[in-house]
Amino acid sequence: MRLYDSFSRQIIPLPDPKTRELTFYCCGPTVYGPAHIGNFRTFLMQDVLRRVIQATGGRIKHVRNLTDVDDKTIRQSRAEGKTLAEFTSLWTQRFHEDCAALNILPPHVEPGAVAHIPQQIALIQKLLDKGHAYTTPDGSVYFRIESYPNYGNLSRLAERQTTTSSFPSQLTERETADEYNRDSAADFALWKARKPEDGDNFWTAPWGQGRPGWHIECSSMCLHHLGATTDIHSGGIDLLFPHHENEIAQSEAATGTTFVRHWFHIHHLMVEGAKMSKSLGNLYTLADVQARGHSAADLRYLLISGHYRQELNFTMDGLHAARSALRRLAKFYTLLGGNPHSFKANYDLPPPETQEIQRGPFARFWAALLEDLNTPAALGELFSIITPLQPHVAAGNYPPEEIPLIRGAFERVIYSLGLDLAEPKCDPPSEVKQLAEQRFTAKKARDYKLADSLRDKIQCLGWNVKDTREGYSLEMIPRNNLKN
Ligand SMILES: [Zn+2]
Fold first, then answer.
1. CA of 215 to the centre of ligand 1 (A)
2. What is the pTM of this model?
3. What is the CA(234)–ligand 1 centre distance, in A?
4. Residue 405 in contact with residue 389, Cβ under 8 Å?
5. Which of 91, 220, 315, 324 fits a disulfide with 31 by CB distance 3.0 to 4.6 angstroms?
6. Is 235 in contact with 42 (CB distance < 8 Å)?
7. CA nearest to 60, candidates 26, 23, 27, 19
């Protein structure tokens, strides 16, 4: 398989996962609230990469961490009067539920930062011993960027600095929160000294009490579980700088060897053409999508349908199109004798026959995925393969002995994308149910004007209300503008 590497900025081959197990580290969620659909785009593309490697007969060890201690988790847990562990375990559970609904395979190891504090302290100590870090009078520890000449190679910092003054302005909220005491503004915190507002959330290190910085959490979990050099390290594109730049610096300064062979970054998700942001109120969660009458399966299809190196625009029409595409795939599977409701894209597939990937009926689909995980091209190939096949299979013109072979090959395709072909049970969102109930009451009171305006409101939300003998029923309005 070939995959774009953000460090070399080239599409380069991955090591052959059939000859040895690849190691794959993904920066996981900060568990202080529900993950939004932009986060899930990243986790889904990572899932597809893993599935493609597994489905084509390779082996991969997947580690995805949980950031369960940082400014936000501490602040929010204290605001809610919960211990940090109580608070983060609730959001971890919610994250796991969302991942399960979206058919994201659980990582083989899911380390939490709090459970790896000793490893983080040991790594910081090593950096102090080697002169790459220094303590400040308040008891914090910083990484000295000057001590690591390769700093900035991932994000091409030197180029950016000559054209813009992007360095200080790109410091994230996490970074700017700790801009004190350091020798150079670019130096980043490895350890943050205990502050009154941290409450009980501090640990004791040889240089004092406090807690680790976000970057060192990831590096130490990655080094601990996957060794000094990891094959693939991944996250959203917004993590490239400074998070991944800092991870490289502190890890390589400590180990003296290459931290990551291949950097895999997933680009932003837009919502209805706009950037996702708290202020625009468009940080949709899976629950928000479900409340609008769509399933996790629709969302998964939509979020993997764009190339991971391009921005993807999330729209409600896109979700309708996703549902329609899934229906077409389910219909094809049914024609092949499969049952969309019992097919689960989360079991362990047997390795493919030697010829299946390169010369089987879905060879073009695989070729697209194996060249830089091109999911839109792969989906295009998939439909261009099944569309002409479908009438032959439906008419019974296909040699019956070949049907199980195609069905098996098709199941591998569906597995690799993690699609759920079952027709979801779409419950009307509570807002629609309430409006329908109000309309029913208005009709009984013969207030037809109000009833009609409520019907319009319901239609605007994408539902039709029909009067029945028992009262009324709600049906989702089918969209006609669906092209695949
Ligand atoms: Zn990370």
1. 6
2. 0.87
3. 8
4. no
5. 91
6. yes
7. 23
Helix (H, G, I), strand (E, B), or coil: what is residue 294?
coil
Contacts of 188 (CB under 8 A, 6+ apart): 142, 143, 145, 175, 213, 215, 242, 246
The residues that bridge with 203 in the sheet, in sequence order, are: 210
- Separation of CA 307 and ligand 1 centre (Å): 22
Contact 456, 361 (CB under 8 A): no
Ligand 1 centroid to residue 219 C-alpha, Å: 7
Distance from the alpha carbon of residue 143 to the mean position of ligand 1, in angstroms: 16
Per residue in 300-323, pLDDT (tens digit) is 999 999 999 999 999 999 999 999
Write the pLDDT tens digit of every residue in 277-288: 888 888 999 999
pLDDT band at 347 (very low <50, low <70, confident <90, very high): low
CA of 266 to the centre of ligand 1 (A): 14
Rg (C-alpha) for the chain, rounded Å, is: 26
Cα end-to-end distance, the chain, whole Å: 27
**Cα within 13 Å of Cα(427), Cβ side:** 10
Q: How far is the CA of 25 from the centre of ligand 1 (A)?
A: 8
Are the CB atoms for 233 and 212 separated by under 8 Å? Answer: no
Ligand 1 geometric centre to CA of 194 (Å): 22
Query: Using one digit for the tens of pLDDT, what is the confidence trace for 361-408?
Result: 999 999 999 999 999 999 999 999 999 999 999 999 889 999 999 999
| Structure confidence by residue, pLDDT tens digits, 67-92 | 999 999 999 999 999 999 999 999 99
Residues 6+ apart with CB under 8 A from 415: 51, 55, 345, 349
Rounded to the nearest angstrom, the distance between the alpha carbon of 244 and the centre of ligand 1 is 7
How far, in Å, is the centroid of ligand 1 from the Cα of 465? 48
Q: What type of residue sits at position 114?
A: V
How remote is the CA of residue 65 from the centroid of ligand 1, in Å? 8
What is the 24 CA–ligand 1 centroid distance (Å)? 12
pLDDT digits (tens, 9 = 90+) for 120-138: 999 999 999 999 999 999 9
| Residues less than 5 Å from ion ligand 1, measured at CB | 27, 218
Distance 243 CA to ligand 1 centre (A): 6
Distance 264 CA to ligand 1 centre (A): 12
**Residue that is written with structure tokens 């992007």 in the block:** 166
- CA dist 189 and 27 (Å) reads 18
Q: Cα 40 vs. chain centroid, distance in angstroms?
A: 3
Find out whether 139 and 209 touch, Cβ atoms under 8 Å. Answer: yes
Q: Give the strands of the sheet with 274-275, arranged side by side.
A: 274-275, 269-271, 312-314
